[in-house]
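Support request, please re-run this one:
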Amino acid sequence: MSDLTNYAWKNHINYRQNPHAYKIGKGEQGVLICEPYKSEILPLWRFKTPVIARQSSQAIYQLFLNYLANDDFVGADMARKYLQMGFTRARRYTNYAGGKKYQGPQKKPLPKGTGDPIKAKSAEIFYKKWQMAEQHQTYQSLKKQWQQWHGNKK
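Re-run finished. Output below.
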């Protein structure tokens, strides 16, 4: 989005202290902006190898559970987004060498199938944890409440 003034997430907001300012958004939106969650989750987020992906996804899922235990929907949603991002980024590195999908200012598509097949296993690991988070009954309940209270389905 070229006009960042309209972007729903702001880097100067503490979303734990101001959860009403949080928007669920689409996909992984806000994941690299929303503090303090970014600082808590990002250092754990890795997918270079399946072993690293398993450790990372387990640590992030544990944070997800901790956020739920504290009725912190924003934290839980951010952890879910990092699990989703682990899947999507690992898939991109599976499909494209170096994870680069486009080349140059004209954004010429690069050939698919040139990436690292090891990342497919990392993607699968993150996918399973992401789906566990998505389907978690407490998360679903808090998400529905959030949408009713804040009126932002996306």
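The two ends are 16 Å apart (CA to CA). The chain has a mean pLDDT of 90.
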